[in-house]
Design brief:
single chain; 353 residues; alpha/beta; Alkaline Phosphatase, subunit A; eight-stranded mixed β-sheet; two-stranded parallel sheet; 13 helices; 12 strands; 13% strand; disordered N terminus; disordered C terminus; binds 2-acetamido-2-deoxy-beta-D-glucopyranose
């Protein structure tokens, strides 16, 4: 009896949450980040080209800085706060992210992380395959230090379980491992992985159910050029726009503004609210009434704007180092965790010898 009423309460709660989740254009968004590839190189890859007929190519979409980590941070929180390296960061818990806006509307979310060994895994890396720098959700303490939220940062194997259970979050961010995302490999390896990973999802009716799939790259490999990255929109939401190209100027901040516009979430008050860099994907803007800016000479987006993590602007960002130590003010914030990571590494090393 008690069990039954708990179950029915749970069903009522689920139904209540369901009523809040109707998006204007999509009910689900699934974002996949590949790594470090210049636009022209990606555009010349035959396996990536094969996706073009199935969706909308965004040929003026930009990363927002260099190297990798701040791009991920920006995609989840609307700024990179001056971050200009790939070190171990923990952004204080008073910094909001898209998660705050989603949860306010009872929308569900998850971050799927290939080769993360457990949910809410906080370490710097695992097996050389999972790296914290590619998982923005664990870097924001507003998520990492909240057990309920952190439980949504899961190993990617959870995805198939969630699809089978009909439990697809409204917002999903998928980080392939260092081999599959092209980081340690080539764009051909990344596109080969995508070609095996994506088509079964695109044809799976439990997964593709008013779903917008976004495939993008975090940044260009070359720093001295515009930070333009190859990006595709796929899924049933763009079925009427297959094999088209949208040349509106977008950036990773558009990932936020598009989600915000689709569900009327408001904004984070950061670059997601900067009209110049946060155009809403046109397939969505058309229906939500958002007016995009016609930016004919886009900024290069290859520098670093100062922020609280690096108050002094640097001439050129450091390369994609995976060092755990870092001589900057951010150390003060991340120091305990850097120490913990170093201790863990030392422990692992000790265990080896
Ligand atoms: C977060 O708290 C710190 C320390 O109190 C403060 O300096 C900073 O401005 C706050 N940031 C935000 C976004 O509230
Ligand atoms: C979210 O769910 C809670 C509890 O089920 C409900 O009280 C609240 O009104 C809902 N909020 C929205 C925006 O639907
Ligand atoms: C990938 O490259 C990083 C250095 O960027 C290295 O630490 C890691 O071990 C490599 N992973 C694999 C699986 O080779
Ligand atoms: C922790 O997360 C839960 C669920 O996401 C949220 O309701 C709660 O307000 C958060 N707690 C804090 C202290 O932010
Ligand atoms: C969709 O994917 C799930 C999880 O892998 C699987 O259980 C289900 O059979 C698939 N459905 C279809 C129609 O392919
Ligand atoms: C698609 O989502 C709707 C709710 O938005 C649900 O009623 C329907 O069962 C879902 N379809 C599939 C095949 O999962
Ligand atoms: C950005 O690209 C421009 C144009 O190619 C180049 O002159 C500049 O040095 C680059 N900026 C950085 C920080 O790499
Ligand atoms: C896609 O569009 C191009 C021209 O932009 C055309 O050459 C090609 O045949 C189209 N492919 C499909 C599958 O419709
Ligand atoms: C909006 O973005 C542009 C291009 O990056 C930048 O020049 C401008 O300073 C930004 N505005 C604000 C208020 O941050
Ligand atoms: C954007 O502006 C350019 C140059 O002013 C113009 O040629 C183009 O048609 C405009 N595009 C849109 C979508 O308004």
């Amino acid at each position: 009896m008690l069990f039954k009423s708990i179950v029915s309460l749970a069903l009522v709660a689920a139904a209540a949450a369901q009523t809040a989740i109707k998006g204007k254009v999509f009910d689900h968004i699934f974002i996949v980040f590949l790594e470090n590839t210049d636009y022209t190189l990606a555009a010349s890859d035959p396996a990536l080209q094969a996706f073009i007929s199935q969706g909308v190519l965004l040929d003026k979409y930009y990363g927002v800085t260099h190297p990798s980590e701040p791009n991920y941070i920006a995609a989840a929180g609307g700024d990179y706060f001056g971050m200009n390296d790939d070190a171990f960061y923990a952004i204080p818990s008073n910094y909001t992210t898209i998660v705050d806006l989603l949860e306010k509307k009872n929308l569900t979310w998850k971050a799927y992380q290939e080769d993360a060994p457990t949910a809410c895994y906080r370490d710097f890396q695992n097996n050389g395959l999972y790296f914290r720098k590619h998982n923005p959700f664990i870097i924001y303490d507003s998520i990492a230090t909240n057990a309920t939220r952190c439980a949504n940062v899961v190993p990617a194997t959870q995805l198939q379980t969630d699809i089978a259970a009909g439990n697809i979050p409204n917002y999903a961010f998928y980080t392939p491992n260092m081999i599959n995302d092209g980081h340690n490999t080539t764009v051909a390896d990344a596109s080969k992985w995508l070609t095996s990973f994506l088509p079964p999802l695109l044809s799976n009716k439990s997964f593709i159910n008013n779903t917008l799939v976004v495939i993008t790259f975090d940044e260009t490999e070359t720093y001295k050029i515009e930070n333009r990255v190859w990006t595709m929109l796929l899924g049933d939401v763009v079925a009427n726009f297959k094999n088209t190209t949208d040349s509106t100027f977008y950036t990773h901040y558009s990932l936020l503004s598009t989600v915000e516009s689709n569900w009327d979430l408001g904004n984070l008050g950061r670059q997601d609210a900067n009209a110049t860099v946060a155009n809403v994907f046109d397939v969505v803007a058309k229906s939500t009434g958002y007016t995009n800016q016609n930016i004919t000479n886009p900024p290069l987006m290859n520098g670093t704007e100062p922020g609280f993590l690096a108050p002094t602007p640097t001439a050129s960002p450091t390369s994609t180092s995976t060092s755990t130590s870092k001589p900057s003010s951010a150390d003060a914030l991340a120091a305990p965790k850097v120490m913990a990571a170093l201790a863990a590494l030392t422990g692992a090393f000790a265990a080896l010898i």
